[in-house]
Amino acid sequence: RRERQRFVDKNGRCNVQHGNLGGESSRYLSDLFTTLVDLKWRWNLLIFLLTYTVAWLVMASMWWGIAYLRGDLHRARDNTYSPCVANVYNFPSAFLFFIETEATIGYGHRYITERCPEGIVLFLFQSLLGSIVDAFLIGCMFIKMSQPKKRAETLMFSRAAVVSQRDGKLCLMFRVGNLRNSHMVSAQIRCKLIKSRQTPEGEFLPLDQCELDVGFGTGADQLFLVSPLTICHEINSKSPFFCLSQRSLRSEQFEIVVILEGIVETTGMTCQARTSYTEDEVLWGHRFLPVMSLEDGFFRVDYSQFHATFEVPTPPFSVKE
């Protein structure tokens, strides 16, 4: 079968692009902090460097402009004259004075004098502006570095889902695992069935979302994810797969979106990992190979068999049949 367009990729990326926003694009600027955090790293670093570079050049130019308008540049080496900023002879020296002030390195050779009210006002403005820029940009970089998106890379989903019997009931199953020793606190899993349908009124819904029960009533959706777990959806009269059989599976078109959420134990931030299974990735009459074994004093997980399945006798009929 030719691979069709997915709603959610296997790596969790949603294939949805927003276009023709018109005047609504101004909403991104109203939430500028989140917009910067959502940008890619290369754009973040470029904005970070350009903002500081422009701010440094503008503020240094203002210090140089004060010295130029007061005539300090021409009388800077006159020991009898009291300039606004001592030992500022040109733009490079004004730039160095600004950097020393902004970075609180220490004045030493260059310092502001008390006979310069405009310099004092500019100094106060520079301190406030520098604090705001530092808090905004450094906060943005810190939030971006501490985002738990990369934590989702160490949460695994099986490449395929299987349909087989468990406890005498036909079930749709897939496997999840955690590669790190640190736990996912309050881990919870949800499943959505994405499938087009037409309502009795004739309305066509191209991406209708339907919830798949993976143990809401029994608490099975709350995971203790210290070892690989097999998530089970029982196919019964309330399931959207009530009429699904081995033969009809070949002609169906649907996508199962799996969403795993939890709190990262080391940072306390909420992490979300996603994947999806299309009808081509659902294996009828298969079961996952065991990956747990008991060693000397501990349990060992063999992740080389994480995606492996084997065939088991399974009725080819639907639950309804």
Describe the 3D structure.
InterPro entries: Ig_E-set (IPR014756), IRK_C (IPR041647), K_chnl_inward-rec_Kir (IPR016449), K_chnl_inward-rec_Kir3.1 (IPR003274), K_chnl_inward-rec_Kir_cyto (IPR013518), Kir_TM (IPR040445). This is G protein-activated inward rectifier potassium channel 1. The chain crosses the membrane at residues 45-69, 119-143. Keywords: Ion channel, Ion transport, Membrane, Potassium, Potassium transport, Transmembrane, Transmembrane helix, Transport, Voltage-gated channel. It is a multi-pass membrane protein. Helices cover 27% and strands 26% of the residues. By secondary structure, it is an alpha+beta fold. The chain folds into 2 domains: 24-146, Helix Hairpins (Orthogonal Bundle); 150-311, Immunoglobulin-like (Sandwich), CATH 2.60.40.1400. The strands form 4 sheets. Strands 1, 2, 3, 7 and 10 form a 5-stranded mixed sheet that branches. Strands 4, 5, 6, 8 and 9 form a 5-stranded antiparallel sheet that branches. Helix 3 (41-70) packs across helix 4. The longest helix has 30 residues, at 41-70. The relative contact order is 0.13. The mean pLDDT is 86.
